[in-house]
């Protein structure tokens, strides 16, 4: 389905809940395939599934890689950018409690996340709101590690 998503709306890369699931950050299976694009926000209902594409400014369209899945190349956001895209594009995530309610796998974040890379990427967003969300996420991860 990731390859189909890449082909339906171009340019796009797998991100948001789909990428979080791919990287095992969320426990839920994602039924709507989520991606971002420099084109307008749009959804497609097809015979093979539902596909959502969120608009991202051209200067924020970075941090993706091409990987092989089921023998096909897919364009997917990398681990750090998956987190940033989600926190940036979801206005409902405002507080530490909102981030805790996401039930992200703190263990996966702690072992896989490159904080330097995340901060380098975050600087490109130039968003005070995003920086506050990152700070709250880091506190949650540190708290989980100490308990």
By CATH reckoning, the class would read Alpha Beta
Whole-number tally of structural domains: 1
Q: How many strands?
A: 6
Q: What is the mean pLDDT?
A: 93
What helical percentage do the residues reach?
A: 40-55%
Question: What fraction strand?
Answer: 15-25%
Strand order of the largest sheet: 1-2-4-3
Count, helices: 7
Based on Cα principal axes, name the global outline: globular
Taken in chain order, the helices and strands follow as: HEHEEEEEHHHHH
Radius of gyration: 15 Å
Low-confidence stretches: none
CATH architectural type: 2-Layer Sandwich
Question: How would you classify the helix and strand content by structural class?
Answer: alpha+beta
Instruction: Characterize the biggest β-sheet.
Output: 4 strands, mixed
Distance between the termini: 38 Å
What CATH calls the topology is Beta Polymerase, domain 2
Q: How does this model look, in words?
A:
- This protein has 147 residues and is an alpha+beta fold.
- It has one domain (2-146): Beta Polymerase, domain 2 (2-Layer Sandwich), CATH 3.30.460.
- It has 7 helices and 6 strands, in the order H-E-H-E-E-E-E-E-H-H-H-H-H.
- It has a 4-stranded mixed β-sheet with strand order 1-2-4-3.
- A hairpin with a 2-residue loop joins strand 3 and strand 4.
- Helix 2 (16-22) runs antiparallel to helix 3 (79-89) and helix 5 (106-112) packs across helix 7 (128-146).
- The longest helix has 19 residues, at 128-146.
- The radius of gyration is 15 Å and the shape is globular.
- The termini are far apart.
- The mean pLDDT is 93.
